[in-house]
Design brief:
Two copies of one chain form a homodimer.
Chain A (H helix, E strand, L loop, with lengths): L27 E4 L8 E4 L5 E2 L4 E10 L2 E7 L8 E2 L2 E3 L6 H13 L3 E12 L4 E10 L10 E7 L12 H16 L5 E4 L14
Chain lengths: 204, 204
Amino acid sequence: MRQPCAGRGFAGIIANMKFCSACGSDRIEFRIPEGDSLPRYVCSACGTIHYQNPKVVVGCIPEWGGRVLLCKRAIEPRHGLWTVPAGFLENAETVVAGAARETLEEANARVEVLSPYTMISLPNINQIYLIFRARLLDLDFGPGAESLEVRLYDEHEIPWEELAFRTVTRTLRNYFLDRKTGAFPTRVSTLERRLREPAHYAPR
Amino acid sequence: MRQPCAGRGFAGIIANMKFCSACGSDRIEFRIPEGDSLPRYVCSACGTIHYQNPKVVVGCIPEWGGRVLLCKRAIEPRHGLWTVPAGFLENAETVVAGAARETLEEANARVEVLSPYTMISLPNINQIYLIFRARLLDLDFGPGAESLEVRLYDEHEIPWEELAFRTVTRTLRNYFLDRKTGAFPTRVSTLERRLREPAHYAPR
């Protein structure tokens, strides 16, 4: 199920902690605890240190013959743009189970999750993408609540200009390049904050 | 830097939320929000949904010739037992930077992080281990604050009975098996809760 990005993903990168969730005090400081090296939210009343860590987004590239399954987003951000099925890994869940669950939720599609393919760090928004290759098990799929449309794409049909996220573009570009060789090593990379392009670079 | 396990790792798997960190109210319910499928901590006063997700542990197998670098833990849990350098990924950090940082902190060792090797889900404690192969850059290493001792081990010297975590045992076992073939695919697996062994299985 979708966990909203607002306030934890794109907007507020570090959750804004005003009160201690352990004791209710408002004496919250953002400082480096003794023996630590990074600032944390620390409660001056009860001493609790509130650690915050990156979230994992899991998903897959569902393959059927030479085609891959993409979903047109019915939700923000990037409503109306295309993505591979993916979403936040949940507590008590394995990465493989999470990737399969997201595919079921977004595309009503059953997959056998194969190997890990892209591992993309997004340090600016505290996320790690883990996208797997997967084998679509049947053609009985269709849009889930978070999708407007779900369909299989041949390589030459991929809507490159209408992909929702740079993680998706990078994953699919690598995928079709690697497919020519038949080898799919796990590809590790980083996406930094997108720089605002100068006006004269704007697409015409 | 180490983030303690107590209360967020091994002991309290789901952080116990008594007060809303946004508004300070104690009207916290653990229930399935509308449109969701999993229970979350929800504030009945201000409506904030407090999502909790798995943490990522990053680390590496620092290689020097045929040997690998291990650290003897100076901290609980598993004080005095051996591990590969690893720890919680921090916000604003890439997986590669995190693995290198942990190696520097625990072993004062500089590495070039190579390819991702094991990806182990621990759904019972809401953790994902990402262990990379890495090339040790020099022999100028030594115990950091969290280690009692740091040394290079040949395969036949590995203290299998004194390894700190099952993730480490599994990673090293696979590593030495794969080394015989020279191919190191990213190995994805799951470690479930360890069952308490019957008394007659106890080591003598």
